[in-house]
# Entry
Amino acid sequence: MQCVVTGGNVKVLAKAIHSLSRIGDELYVEPQQDGLALRSVNSSRSAYACFLFAPLFFSRYSLPNGHDFRCKMAIKSVQSVFRSLATLEKTVEKCHIELDEQKNRLTFTLHCKHGLLKTHNLSYQDSESLQAVFDKEGCGNVFRAQPRLLVDTVVHFPPSLEEVSVSVSDNRMWFRNHVDEEERSKAMVTELCLASDEFDHFAVHAHNSVTFCLKELRGLLVFAESTGLPISMYFDEPGSPVVLSVTDSVLEGNFVLATLSHDDHSFQKNNTKGAPTAPPPPLDDFMNDDMDPYLIAMDTSMAPGTPEASSALTVCSPPQTPAANHSTRLHCEEEEEEEEETVDSDRPPNKKFRSLFFGSVFPSQMSTQPLPDQDVLASDSEEDDS
Amino acid sequence: MKFRGKIIDIACLNHFSRVVTTIAKLTKTCVLRLTPDNLFFVLSGKVANGGVSMWCELSQGNFFDEYQMEGVSSEDNEICLELSPENLSRALKTVQNAKSVKVKLTKKHCPCVTVSAELPTLSSVSRVVTHDVPVEVIPRRLWHELKEPSVPDFHVSIYLPPLKTMKNVVDRMKNLSNFLANLNGEMNLKIETDLVSVTTHFKDLGNPPWGGGSEGGADPEGMAEARVDIRRLQQFLMGQQVTPTKAMCNIVHQRILHLVVLHDDASLQYFIPAVA
# Structure
């Protein structure tokens, strides 16, 4: 595999990597026919991001001979290659990425001014594909705005804020910080209302309200603001993930964030004149929720003959939400090494902010034959729908 | 109980924000007392906060373009609310460029002071942001704790040196500090440990006109002294963001350090008790 990035694109690549580092600790690299895919996922599987750089983004792009290659590496080491963005802009003329399969490493060579060459040899680990399959085109609520709008919105919320709720009506969008039941009497509540004409595109199918983690979004905002690309936002009902993406002719970035399934959000319309609002319905105790629909489906059918295939499927009972008919389900097909699988299937979703898992739905009960499900699952190519 | 105020002028909004930020740096919670003419931020001296107390007075006309309030009753036409000034400060900071800001008492899931602002946008509809700061209403029977502290019978009253200078000096003194001043316009800041004692002398500070001491026969050369926890002094100095019109301190010998800061539109008094 050989990729050469020149000029201003080096900085774009660097920014994408920094942006991915806000999601997870590992960078998954997969050179594909349609471009180089860089992905990351967080440890609780509630946030996933992918940047796809088309072959035209590179001045040279060639795939490894004859076989599929994918790997993962510590994102911090890749970040260290592109550490100072200001210096990158001024001194780096091109960046050469080369695969050395014998030595299990990716070599990043920065060709800088004055003939200076900086070579970074980063070792990688083999990994199977990390691909979240999601269908953003199938989402009912679609918005697009200049990054400045979202950046200006997010500034009203403290940097430490975990969760934000977004609600829409026909021509308004509200952002509100999400407060746990226990903290309700002490926490400050901030709400911001945006009008539809501040957006480049505002299409509402259902007046929904979704709650997701703001922190992970900030990485995308920084990227979008610096590249000036408009941000598109897609979501449906609570529980379905929200997808935020930036696109231009040579790259596409998608951030997929899980949302709280039972939204107790009772967003206020701005015309209530201080009348007391009805208390929101009590938030279901998460531990009593049917957690299973919210665990990631680990479909190991792609790895032939893996004995751990059945144990990895952590989804069991059919979901209670009518999501069975819903097209926006998010499957994360990841075939991991054996130890990681057992850890994942045993690990309870115990994150403090009420773990948000990708909604994964298998219409049938847990099946020990992943292969038939494979037909039901959307295929890889769905991710490329854009 | 009703309260509704509106600020339109950017400069007023800015000043108000700064006052609230200063208060936020001094204490985690305090009482906001609203009367028809004034707003007060009050911290009553309690053991829990090291005995310090604070009294900040603002004339509402200096900040609000519209101000309407109805107190608890017609005889007690006041509202007292306990809140976290940090929350209020955060809310105000984000709306500095607003077209107008409304502050009102509301009842959401609990009583709140709601800061709502109209932000300028390119679209036809303004962007509205609201911050609900939860508050606790202080019942009338506790209002006696919130009276303006009487200016103590001080021994010495002196103008403070430039606060920035004082802050630099105090920052470098980590232990308990002595605070000495006399009627001749001299002030000493001193710290003492087992090994070393460091004193910074400020001269020619000037004494405010009333600083003649309680009996009038006090010795102009004598220094009054108050030993205070330096962290409180540091906190006070950190909170001052703008050069005040006047800054002075009164000392009751070995009892209280009373710091007074006057701005055009607000006054702040901070009492630090002396330690043994």
